Amino acid sequence: MFGEVHLEFTMSKARQLEGKCCSLVGMKVLQKATRGRTAGIFSLIDTLWPPAVTLKTPGRDQPCEEIKTHLPPPVLCYIFTAQPCLGQIDIIDGDPISNLYQPPVTRCLRDILQMNDLGTRCSFYARVIYQRPQLKSLLLLEQREIWLLVTDVTLQTKEESDTRLPKTLLVYVTPLCVLDSEVLEALAGTAPHSIFFKDALRDQGRIVCAERTVLLLQEPLLSVGSGVSSCELPGPVTLDSLDSATPVNSICSVQGTVVGVDESTAFSWPVCDRCGNGRLEQRLEDRGAFSCGDCSRVVTSPVLKRHLQVFLDCRSRPQCRVKVKLLQRSISSLLRFAASEDGSYEVKSVLGKEVGLLNCFVQSLTTHPTSCIGLEEIELLSAGGASAEHQQWPQGL
Ligand SMILES: [Zn+2]
C-alpha cells in the first residue's frame, strides 16, 4: 500500500528522510486517492512499481507466486496529514537505506524526448541556458510560473540527420512545484546553472514541473541511469535555426535582412553614462540638463538607449513576416552608420542590412490571416553572467 504524508517541513529535512525507514505518529487520513481522480500521485507511484523487493502476503514466509508474476499497478492510496501537536516522523535507526527504496532513474534529454509516454514521470540533469521571466526577486519567483530552456550533451551533439530532435527543451515550472531556497537563489541569479529535475512530467514537446517534482542543484547521491555527466557541454551552446517547425515559447537562432522598422513602437531614452540608470530627471532650471538620482550628479553626456523592432526577410521562413525586438547591442551595431549626432536616423538607411545570427525567444506565432512570428532577441545565461541590459525594462511573457 502506498501513502503520501503531508507535513510542515523544510526541504532539507525532507531530503534527509529519503530512502529511510521511518516511524509515523499522530497521523490521520486526509483523503483516499484513486487513480481515476488523482492522476498526479499515481504517475509518481508508477515510477516505484513494481516494488524493488518481492512482495509477501501477510502471514506467509514465502513470496506469493501470484503477486510476483501479476503485479497490477495500485489504483488506491491514502494521503495522510499530521495531527496538530501530535504528528511526528522519525527515522528508524539501523539499516541506512531501505531495500524498498528505488533511487531516481536518470535519463538524458534525447531519451526522454524519444519516449512517447506522455503524463509519465522522468528524472534528468540539464543545463539551464535561458529563463523567463528573469526576476531578481525571490518572492516574485516563488509565486509565478517559470519557463526554463534547458539542454544537455545529447541534444547539443545530436546527429545532423536527426532533425526531429530539438537542441533545447522547454521546462515549464508551475506554481505548484515547491522550490527550495537554494534553487530559488540560483534562478534569481544570472549565472548558468545545472539542475537535477526529479520526477518531472512528460508532456507534448515539453516537460512540466508540478506537484511532487523536486528540483535540486546537485545530482542526488543515489541515482541510476545514463545522464550523470550530460551537463558537461562540449562547447558553446548552439540553438536550432528558425524554421517552419519552430514552436512558440522556444528559443532559436535567426538571420536575415532588415526589410522594415516598426516605427509605432520605436523610442529612445537617455541613461546615466556612469551607472546606467535609465530614470534620469530633466531639470528645466538647468537648461534641460539631466541629473541622475543614483549618482546625485548632473549627467552631461547621457547615453541614448533605444527600443527597436525590425522586420526581417528570412531565407528559412520565406513566406513569413518575422518581427524581432532587438537588444541594445544589436540596435547599436545596426545604427552605427545610420544615426546622426542627435540620435535620429533615417529608416531607409537600415533597410537591406544583414543581421544575425541572433539568439531569439519565440513570443508569438500566428498563421491567420497571415503568417507572422514575433521574436525577442535574448542573451543566453553564460559564464560571464547576463548583461545588465535585461534590467532596463521588466520582462514578462
Ligand atoms: Zn548614475
UniProtKB/TrEMBL annotation:
Pfam assignment, any one: DUF4503
Record-level GO cellular component terms: nuclear chromosome; nucleoplasm
Superkingdom classification of source: Eukaryota
Any one of the GO BP annotations: double-strand break repair via homologous recombination
Domain DUF4503 as annotated: residue spans: 1-380
Listed PANTHER family: DNA REPAIR-SCAFFOLDING PROTEIN, DNA REPAIR-SCAFFOLDING PROTEIN SPIDR
Name of the protein this chain belongs to: DUF4503 domain-containing protein
